[in-house]
Amino acid sequence: xxxxxxxxxxxxxxxSEPLLLExxxxxxxxxxxxxxxxxxxxxxxxxxxLVAEHGAAGVTMEAVAAAASVGKGxxxxxxxxxxxxxxxxxxHSARQLQAAFLGGPPPLGPGAPPVERLHAFGRAVLRxxxxxxxxxxxxxxxxxxxxxxxxxxxxxxxxxLLLRQAVPDADCVLLAQTLIGYLDPAxxxxxxxxxxxxxxxxxxxxxxLVARVTRTExxx
Amino acid sequence: xxxxxxxxxxxxxxxSEPLLLExxxxxxxxxxxxxxxxxxxxxxxxxxxLVAEHGAAGVTMEAVAAAASVGKGxxxxxxxxxxxxxxxxxxHSARQLQAAFLGGPPPLGPGAPPVERLHAFGRAVLRxxxxxxxxxxxxxxxxxxxxxxxxxxxxxxxxxLLLRQAVPDADCVLLAQTLIGYLDPAxxxxxxxxxxxxxxxxxxxxxxLVARVTRTExxx
DNA sequence: CAGGCAAACGGACCGCGGTCCAGTTTTCTT
DNA sequence: AAGAAAACTGGACCGCGGTCCGTTTGCCTG
Lengths: 220, 220
Description:
Chains A, B: It comes from Streptomyces fructofermentans. Chains A, B: This is TetR family transcriptional regulator. Chains A, B: Keywords: DNA-binding. In chain A, about 60% of the residues lie in helices and about 0% in strands. Chain A is elongated and about 60 Å long. The longest helix of chain A has 22 residues. The N terminus of chain A is likely disordered. Chain A has 2 domains: about 50 residues, Arc Repressor Mutant, subunit A (Orthogonal Bundle), CATH 1.10.10; about 130 residues, Tetracycline Repressor, domain 2, CATH 1.10.357.10. By secondary structure, chain A is mainly α. Chains A and B meet through helix 8, helix 9 and helix 10 of A and helix 8, helix 9 and helix 10 of B. Chain A binds a DNA duplex through helix 1, helix 2 and helix 3.
């Protein structure tokens, strides 16, 4: 296991759901030593370059280490494993998106009615994922941990909160996971790249889904 | 790549969606040579034993080969890759389930109204996945191909058909993928093993989801 | 400025998934 | 029955992700 990287105190899992989501683990980097910080930057830059040049598949841990003139062990110490490195590469845009729906302008940010925000949320995620698709796919952790990654937790937490406002008496956690599932990069890839659907259709599908899920009671 | 195993003509992908799903690739094994068939059986048996003894993680290709007194190359020739081997291990119950909803007694099989069948379908899949969970997780292909595996195609195809009957004017393919997403082994694992939810809650969640998704028009 | 120590480094090392191909076995043909 | 083509076999081989541990380096304290 890659557990117990000394410098990452794991942020101590705030026991129960905090009612307001903090800006996701912004206290992530516990003051690296100077050389460590420098190497971290070099590694990220090297990795980004490799992605650009040879695609995500070309991002070999050894290659990254070499390209950054750094030992292989260093890469693992810093990022834990390959997934960690790739996630670090996506971290920037992830935080950006998060900031947008936590504190940005409506309809994505607070201020709009929850259902509106859900619609906007889906569009935003779909757009962002469909760029970056290759990286998003490559960064997927092994199946057993797929839903435990901090960024994903943040997304599903947010959706849960919105759902609680929109359909208070439903099992919003489960509903949220369902919605999040629709935004899974692997699904997006399947539908757009393999089935050839245009992104607009996925967006329409999201809107329809949100509408159906947030309908309060059967017409009957 | 592991493509081009001479003996597997790839079954030629029946171009468009067949209106009636055949019993999923039942013409899979194009008459193996005698010794090959024998080795195949030995390998599956050995693999099953290893799963039972050391868990899915203990199923090393080399270990399986050794346990079956067979060369490593043989394993790969037969099953393509690790995922293929694991899927072969699950094949039996997959076909069983498929037979049940294609031709078994209602409410799972034909005869019941489509929404009824959807409810039963979810319960059946949830139950089956929650046993076998470990194997199901381990058998998961790399993200990019997750939705292309034949068994999964069969499931989502079936759901699509049922949805077309229940909500004819919706984008049933997308809706079906959403529902299938709820039944993803990785999600089941996350919710039951990591969040500690009882299976009953997931079943209730499924019913709620099906109800919401198949509601025809908003109450307004 | 010395010196001590935690943190960071780097590369040898390991195990596993996957490939390859020379040699063997089976099946088909005549 | 014999011989050749096709199919199968096994294990050496490769690359990569991940671990380990002896060595080096930056930082803080006196």
